[in-house]
TrEMBL record:
One of its GO terms (molecular function) is 5-deoxy-D-glucuronate isomerase activity. SUPFAM superfamilies: RmlC-like cupins. Its EC number is 5.3.1.30. The keyword NAD does not apply. This is 5-deoxy-glucuronate isomerase. Pfam families: KduI.
Length: 265
């Protein structure tokens, strides 16, 4: 089994189903985990030396963070049924979530110093825009784009219809060559609308020192430390993924695989 693929598990006592840390990934910036709660359960944490973005993937919950009560949040039952509510939390702060219904939340993190206050990110701030054409079209939801206030963290959701390609044409962001390209570590948290079958993701470099093709199941995470990383959704299986990126420059600058660079992005 490739070490870039992290399978989800049943929730443990901490309610975590999948987790990636800088230590487990062997990199410096991105941390990611998903927690699933039953109605009435509470989960909590501290940000320490990171900024985090709490993304409600499905269900309703009351979020408190950095001494603020953000109230009861959440509208969609799952990532395919609407736009997300999210909360940004700066370093050295406590946070907690009490589930009003069964709830799934992503905890996205990266290093920060504490330049920005905690804030609510509403669905109407996120929106949804198409990208690509034909069987290359997918739908982008920018939660923390590089135009939003954060120190190192970037967060985006993508819906890819069944039979379509995504993160395509293949691109990479593994070279610290700003403004031409930025070094950004990345995780993909995959969900399949039907909850079964698989999607495909390849992570590769042109010199083939890294070349992994993975069948991902509902709830799996793929880590992208470097290289190109396209995704394919089989016909009949709509795909959602949540991307978390972070690096020394909080700007998304990438390079195309020259073999597909002539195709519309």
């Amino acid at each position: 089994m490739t070490n870039l693929l992290v399978h989800s598990q049943a929730p443990g006592p901490d309610r975590v189903t999948v987790r990636v840390t800088p230590e487990s990934a062997g990199w410096k910036y991105v941390g990611f985990e998903v927690r699933k709660l039953a109605a009435g359960e509470v989960t909590s944490g501290t940000t320490d030396q990171t900024e985090i973005c709490l993304v409600l993937l499905g269900g309703k919950g009351r979020i408190e963070a950095a001494g603020r009560d953000f109230g009861l949040l959440g509208e969609r039952k799952n990532p395919f049924e609407g736009l997300p509510w999210s909360v940004y939390v700066p370093p050295n702060e406590a946070w907690s979530i009490r589930a009003e219904t069964d709830l799934e939340v992503a905890v996205c993190s990266s290093p920060a110093q504490g330049k920005y206050p905690a804030r609510l990110i509403k669905p109407d701030e996120v929106g949804e825009v198409p990208r690509g054409k034909g069987n290359n079209q997918r739908y982008i939801r920018n939660i923390l784009p590089d135009t939003a206030q954060a120190e190192t963290l970037l967060v985006v959701e993508v819906i890819t219809p069944g039979g379509h390609w995504s993160s395509y044409p293949p691109h990479k962001h593994d070279t610290d060559d700003y403004p031409n390209e930025t070094y950004l570590e990345e995780t993909y948290y995959h969900r399949l609308k039907r909850g079964s079958d698989f999607a495909l993701q390849r992570v590769y470099t042109k010199d083939k020192t890294l070349d992994e093709a993975m069948a991902v199941s509902d709830g799996d995470v793929v880590m992208v430390p470097k290289g190109y990383h396209p995704v394919g959704a089989p016909v009949g299986f709509d795909l959602f993924y949540l991307n978390v990126m972070a690096g020394p420059h909080r700007v998304w600058k990438f390079s195309m695989d020259p073999d597909q660079a002539h195709l519309p992005y």
